[in-house]
């Protein structure tokens, strides 16, 4: 009996194709990162290993040796040659010189939107797209060059966002070097509209019509679930609010918005279940499921993880049609071998890696862990519900750590809570996509039915992201991923020894009993008695001024996008905002306006005399109307008071007479409202983005600028007069600036001037949220120390 059980377990997982998959993937990835010759070397080693296996002559080694031999030969010759050809493509040399070019290309994938945070007069949102394409002909500086490689187009979303795979277009622009580790020869930065646009294949046109129909149907839902549903069903996050996307990332639910094997399993399973209900045979069931999966692949587009899952699903359906219930592991290994040989760039794609490893974890680890839990008395359903997300988290943690630079500590819990609704929302969304164009009423009913599931996922993600210590910072890139993998291997190996397991368990108990309660019950933020906080909102401004009443504070500016200012206010426990001041109407100061209202009562919105840019004024006034709050204009000399806080308006000292369309960025900055606040920690000067002219006006009119704390103008730019800074004579200067910004903020000259004055300078890109609180000799500063990453 024992031998029969062991033999059955061996048959459950057929590992014969695994060495070939590992060798092919490793050779291709190493070739992309280190050079074509590395792929040749690893391929040659695989060929030698295959020869050794074949020489043994045993039946169980023949299949593994043959597969390894074939994969090794492919990696050593065709794959290595493709990597070499891409590296030596003439477009690459031209891109290094930054010359102009005209390319005739065929679109390979759907345009991928690039989200950009708002700044100055540029509204936040998607302004450009990235489009992978294959080059047909190329002209560089007026001279034709031979290139049949790949190019990546960076183009305006308005003219290029609607293109479909299979279309041919002509694009002109400036060549830029491509990112390493890919087969892309060059990047083409395009400004103009496409020329000579060819027709798209009929199936792509049909898929686009279905996708557009889903977006139209989702409009009946509120903004957040309406943007999430296409992401869950089709992986289309173009309408997803950035706040929700960030919460899904922090809570470990990002994979739900990337179409992969899970979606295909759900759809294929639903079709097979329907076929079983009507008593269809295996071949008919496989044909029906295969047809549906093929249509779904066309619908969502040829993403690496989707193609991987499609190949694997096709193999499984073929086995079903032939009456053989093959293991999932050989299908996965074959899919890896075939796909990295067909498209070597998949070997370096994070989504592909996540998909493969997650599937491997579900096949190899989840059943064992579920059985182990069942043996310990856990009901089968709960055991599977715990084992599946835990296995997926464990095997994908190194990749996620290297890709995102963070590790979600709440991922297992959030995935367990999300799991029950993933299948229903996927099936309902796909049905609505297919039915909607022909029967809009039925499509709307299905969307309404999917709405509660989408809201539940948003709720889970939001609460998971808000949990104390939800994410752990980790080194990014390949080294970070390798470190995470090494730590994971060490933990797995250590867990095999009883004494080490006991020590690890004791350590976890100590952490749970000391560190976690300390963070949850007595968090170190915010500090007691805070009077002012400069919120870290990235490349933008947001200041919170406390009143003497707990939970009540005045907010000045809201940052470049929703989410960060809301998180800051939530951490501070602010529930009532009697006045929300917008210093001026640039996007990095008003972008988070809507999120200030989330769960809070806002008394009024106050602005200065500026009305430019026009789109921003329309946005602010429209938000005030929607929220039913008054919109007031502040004027020079006006004074506002609350218990423990008073504000005096010092500027601007003029109102521009130019129409909003004629005002440039400098004029808008100089129209910023300048406030002097009397707080429990002393006098604070809030300067918006005033530049040289506005600063000179304040000095010329003899305004009393002295303050204990200075919010440095314009994110610490070089447009700060030393005389202005000297007139303020602050003890502390706060600079609100985004990490890795491309504007040179803060300027070294401005920081140096403040340093020579003996001023304590803080920066949100380094210090995170920064609080000012009263102390005996003057204001004290407390830093939260969790800065936001570079702007997207």
UniProtKB/TrEMBL annotation:
Q: Which residues form the Metallo-beta-lactamase domain?
A: 539-739
Taxonomically, the superkingdom here is: Bacteria
Q: Name one GO cellular component term.
A: plasma membrane
Q: Which Pfam families match?
A: Competence (PF03772), Lactamase_B (PF00753)
**Record's bilayer topology term:** Multi-pass membrane protein
Q: Where in or outside the cell?
A: Cell membrane
InterPro entries the record matches: ComA-like_MBL, ComEC_N, Competence_DNA_uptake, Metallo-B-lactamas, RibonucZ/Hydroxyglut_hydro
Question: What name does UniProt use for this protein?
Answer: ComEC/Rec2 family competence protein
According to the record, the segments passing through the membrane are: 34-54, 61-81, 256-277, 284-302, 322-342, 349-370, 390-410, 417-439, 476-495, 502-522
NCBIfam families, A to Z: ComEC_N-term
Coiled coil feature spans = none
Q: Which segments carry the region annotation Disordered?
A: 769-792
Q: Which organism is it from?
A: Amycolatopsis dendrobii
Q: Which UniProt keywords apply?
A: Cell membrane, Membrane, Transmembrane, Transmembrane helix
* PANTHER family referenced in this protein's UniProt entry, alphabetically: DNA INTERNALIZATION/COMPETENCE PROTEIN COMEC/REC2, RECOMBINATION PROTEIN 2
Give the compositionally biased regions (Basic and acidic residues).
Answer: 783-792
